[in-house]
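Lab intake sheet, docking and co-folding queue.

SAMPLE TYPE: protein with bound small molecule
LIGAND NAME: zinc ion
LIGAND FORMAT: SMILES
REQUESTED OUTPUT: full 3D complex as structure tokens
PRIORITY: normal
SUBMITTED BY: R.K., bench team

The fields below were copied directly from the construct record.
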Amino acid sequence: MRAVKRSADGVTVFEAPEPSGPGVTVHVRAASICGSDLKLLEFGPSEHIIGHEIAGVLDDGTPVAVEPKVPCRECSWCRSGNEQLCDQIVMSMLGLTCDGGMAERMVVDERCLVRLQSSTPVADSSLVEPLSVGVHGLHRAGLEAGQKVAVVGAGAIGLCAAVAALHLGCEVDVAARHETQRKAVEAIGADQDPEGRYEIVVDAAGTESSHLRSSELCAKGGTLLLLGSYFGDLVLPGLPITGNEVSVVPAFMCGTHAGRREIETAAEVLARRPEVAGALITHRFPLDEAPEAFRVAADRAAGAIKVVLEP
Ligand SMILES: [Zn+2]
Ligand SMILES: [Zn+2]
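RESULT FIELD (auto-filled):
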């Protein structure tokens, strides 16, 4: 079958062996490119098939999204609902340390599946995973309905966090840099250009300037949620954080909150807000055009937000 991995000069489409092993077969219909996939290009070739934002159908046609990690479900982190911190998580991340979803098919542990509502197009449902990152981050930040939330950075993760905050009953202002992003902010029903102070500020850009902007937007006693991709040092401005007793909260993937898988909450968010797909998905490519899809995804100024591969 056809599949995608990182090569020395970007990504390459190659002929991979049919997936096998324990689990169920997912016929992939949508696998989207995450900002982390772009950053990982700097790390050179991958051993495994990449892609961790995945939706498809089972043999019987059941539409599903895939939670891209296989926790042990036995360690203390798993038992406390923090599967994202599982002692074995590093070796079981689909698309990173084992085969992911930029392929025609994959075999996954049945417990990784998230069943989609019949009204949610499977072609849009690779968004469930980035939405789950937003849901989890906001839970980590202790978000409550009615709070004022600012998001700095209107790439896919920032927009997903904004959508999740709106869904959870908050007012949301988003700082967007590019015109396509500003249109997406409007389309999801958030407001632009944060001003003043916010109880929760989401840094979704992960740059030194976004950290400064995010910190300055935090209210006294507020929370700065780190949702960007942080592969290097994390530099935060001292005074706006310490002088205002801002809590700095990192978040990683998703887990369980109040007894419910956060990725199921994310699937519900997408089902209730179908306009999100139209706002975020700017490009679709067949799997064989993965190199071009990655080139487009890297060019934010040219209008890419979420780029989806359709095997
Ligand atoms: Zn991702
Ligand atoms: Zn575990």
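REVIEWER NOTE: The chain has a mean pLDDT of 95.
SIGN-OFF: pending second check by T.M.
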